[in-house]
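Changelog note: in this version the structure field was regenerated for every chain. One regenerated record is shown below for reference.
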Amino acid sequence: MIYINQDLCKGCLLCVNTCHKHVYAVSDKPNKKEVLLPYPANEKNCSNCKECELVCPDQAISVDIERNWWMSKDNTYAFNPNFAKKRV
């Protein structure tokens, strides 16, 4: 689940421009600060890379991931493939 704190977000849209999975879209309704904020329009596409969390200057984004996601059989994450293999 992706959570964007609307009180912290200033609408810089770095998350929208950084996300390589095109998870975020920009709202067409301004918030109470009259800023168009991002929202997770395609959350099912999220690969849990957390780049959006890292790039957010206001720390307004939280991405929750399942425990031990790297152990799933169908993972497509780019990291050391030998890390999750069981040793015989």
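Spot check on this record: The longest strand covers residues 2-4. The domain at 2-63 is CATH 3.30.70.20 (Alpha-Beta Plaits).
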